[in-house]
Amino acid sequence: xxxxxxxxxxxxxxxxxxxxxxxxxxxxxxxxxxxxxxxxxxxxxxxxxxxxxxxxxxxxxxxxxxxxxxxxxxxxxxxxxxxxxxxxx
Length: 89
Hints:
Layout: H1 2-36, H2 39-49, H3 51-57, H4 73-83
């Protein structure tokens, strides 16, 4: 009798864990689909299709898990040099 009760409890716990994982998975699907429908991802799709963007980056844009902003540091230094006064002493 005790072995049968332990098996029923283990099966019940297993089903509860499966339901919990399904709940967490459905929340993740909803969140990531909401994120993928934002303006940033729409702009990313447009940038992937634009030949001028690919030429400016020197490589095509690839899909990944997250969108990461990449900036070239030498352009920022050029902008700082242009905005600095000529006589800084």
